[in-house]
Q: What sequence folds into this?
C-alpha cells in the first residue's frame, strides 16, 4: 500500500501539493532509505551483540544519541517550531533544531508543515497519517495502522510549507537550518562513529559507534516516534473529547518522551507539556520546566488547571450521556 489514494480524496485538500513524477520519486526514494538503511543497522547491531562484539561505549552512545534525537524532535521540531509552545534564544533554538535534524525525519519546515496539517485534519480526510480512514472492520484497521506508521511517507502529496509554515519561512536562521538538513542528519552518524573510534580504537570501534549510536539508534527512535501517529491514534485512553481518535498510550509516551500522550496533546496542542498530570510520563515536558528554571526557555504556554478539569469533566459527562 503506497501513495495517498487509499486514504485521501482524488483532489488534494487545501494546503496540500501533489508532486510530479520526478519529485515524487525523490521523496519516495528518500523515505525508503530512512526506513531500510537504519533497519540494516539494527540487524548488524543484533549480530554484534550475538558475537559479543560490543562495548560499554556502544551502549552509552546508543542511549546518548537516542536522547539527543528524541529530545530534538519533541522539544525542537514539535513543541517549539510546530506549536510555538515556548520561546528561547536563537542559539538554543538552533541546538534543538540540529538535534532534531539528526533524527532524519525530514527537514524542519517539511516536518512542521506536515504536523500542522495533521492537527488541522486529525483523523479526518486530509490527515497525512491517520490509521482510521480506511474502514471500521479489523482488516481495515490493521491496514490503516500500517499505513499510518510508515507507508504514508511514500505519498505523492506533501503539505505546503508556504501554507502551513508561513511564519517559519520568514526566519533566516530556520531557512538555513532547513537547507543544511542533510549535513545535520549525517552529523548524527559521524559523531558516534568518531566517539567510538576514539574510545574503543580503530575501525572496529568506529564501526560499532556508527551502528549503535547511528543506524540502530535512528531505527528504534524513529519507530517509536512513528508509533505516535499510528498506535497512539488507535489504542489508549481518551480523557478529553478532541473530535478525533487521539489517545494516551503510556508505552509510546515512555519511549517518545511524552509524545504518546496524544489525547492530552490534541486537547491542548499549544501546551508545552503533554502530561496533563504530574504522574503522566512526559520527559520533554519535565525537561522544559527545568530549562525554564535555568533561563534557557521562557513563556511556556499552558492552560489553567480549571480549564483542564472543565474539559475532562465535560468529556466524562458526554461519555455517560
A:
Amino acid at each position: 500500500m503506497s501513495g495517498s489514494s487509499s486514504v485521501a480524496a482524488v483532489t488534494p485538500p487545501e494546503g496540500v501539493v501533489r508532486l510530479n513524477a520526478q519529485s515524487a520519486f525523490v521523496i519516495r526514494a528518500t523515505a525508503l532509505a530512512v526506513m531500510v538503511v537504519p533497519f540494516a543497522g539494527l540487524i548488524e547491531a543484533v549480530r554484534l551483540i550475538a558475537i559479543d562484539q560490543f562495548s560499554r561505549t556502544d551502549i552509552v552512545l546508543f542511549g546518548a544519541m537516542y536522547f539527543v534525537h528524541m529530545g530534538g524532535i519533541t522539544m525542537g521540531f514539535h513543541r517549539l517550531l510546530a506549536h510555538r509552545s515556548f520561546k528561547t534564544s536563537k542559539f538554543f533554538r538552533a541546538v534543538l533544531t540540529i538535534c532534531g535534524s539528526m533524527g532524519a525525519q525530514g527537514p524542519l519546515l517539511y516536518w512542521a508543515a506536515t504536523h500542522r496539517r495533521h492537527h488541522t485534519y486529525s483523523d479526518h480526510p486530509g490527515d497525512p497519517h491517520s490509521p482510521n480512514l480506511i474502514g471500521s472492520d479489523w482488516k481495515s484497521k490493521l491496514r490503516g495502522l500500517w499505513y499510518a506508521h510508515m507507508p504514508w511517507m511514500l505519498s505523492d502529496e506533501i503539505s505546503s510549507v508556504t501554507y502551513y509554515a508561513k511564519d517559519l519561512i520568514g526566519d533566516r536562521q530556520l531557512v538555513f537550518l532547513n537547507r543544511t538538513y542533510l549535513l545535520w542528519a549525517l552529523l548524527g552518524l559521524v559523531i558516534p562513529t568518531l566517539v567510538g573510534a576514539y574510545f574503543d580504537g580503530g575501525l572496529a570501534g568506529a564501526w560499532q559507534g556508527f551502528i549503535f549510536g547511528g543506524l540502530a539508534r535512528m531505527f528504534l527512535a524513529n519507530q517509536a516516534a512513528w508509533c505516535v501517529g499510528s498506535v497512539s491514534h488507535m489504542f489508549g485512553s481518551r480523557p478529553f473529547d478532541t473530535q478525533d481518535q487521539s489517545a494516551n498510550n503510556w508505552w509510546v509516551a515512555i519511549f517518545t518522551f511524552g509524545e504518546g500522550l496524544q489525547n492530552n496533546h490534541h486537547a491542548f496542542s499549544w501546551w508545552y507539556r503533554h502530561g496533563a498530570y504530574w504522574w503522566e510520563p512526559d520527559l520533554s515536558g519535565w525537561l522544559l520546566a527545568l530549562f525554564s528554571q535555568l533561563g534557557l526557555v521562557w513563556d511556556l504556554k499552558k492552560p489553567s488547571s480549571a480549564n483542564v478539569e472543565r474539559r475532562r469533566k465535560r468529556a466524562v459527562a458526554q461519555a455517560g450521556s
The beta strands are 16-18, 87-88, 157-159, 297-298. The CA atoms of residues 57 and 196 lie 7 Å apart.
